[in-house]
Amino acid sequence: MTSLINAWANFVIAKRAIVIGVSLLLLLLAFFTGGSIPFDNSTERYFIAGDPTLLEYDQLLEVFGDNEYLIVGLEAAPHISNIFNAESLDALHRLSDFLDITPLIIGTPWRVLVELIMCR
User: Looking at the chain, which runs of residues are DSSP E strands?
Assistant: First the structure.
């Protein structure tokens, strides 16, 4: 193996102008033809056609329009008339803390956003 490495090193040193020229030619060729290389990083390419998970993902996109956000909502139990009580707000706070330390979640821009919707 040492003799092969020495032979290659001697060739590169002896023919350095040719090596540099060929390297530049290949670099230019890659630069001018590299723009046409297709790049598909869509989520659909990671699923088999007809996969039920892909259908659910498509429904998620249809409903929410994007997959970059996570919306968490709480609903009061049937026996609780109002979700805005100490126990529910404490659960919301613990959930928010959990989401802050979850590695896959980059950030929580608003820790708690409460919107009261009343049905009459």
Answer: none
Q: What is the pLDDT of residues 44-81, one digit of tens each?
A: 788 888 888 888 888 878 877 777 776 666 777 788 77
44 touches 54 (CB < 8 A): yes
* Number of C-beta neighbours around residue 97 at 10 A: 12
Q: Could you give the count of Cα atoms lying within 13 Å of 70 in the half-sphere of its Cβ? A: 12
Q: How far apart are CA 92 and CA 41, in angstroms?
A: 35
Q: Is 47 exposed, middle or buried (0-12, 13-18, 19+ CB in 10 A)?
A: middle
| 3-state DSSP assignment of residue 61 | helix
3-state secondary structure 10-39: HHHHHCHHHHHHHHHHHHHHHHHHHHHCCC
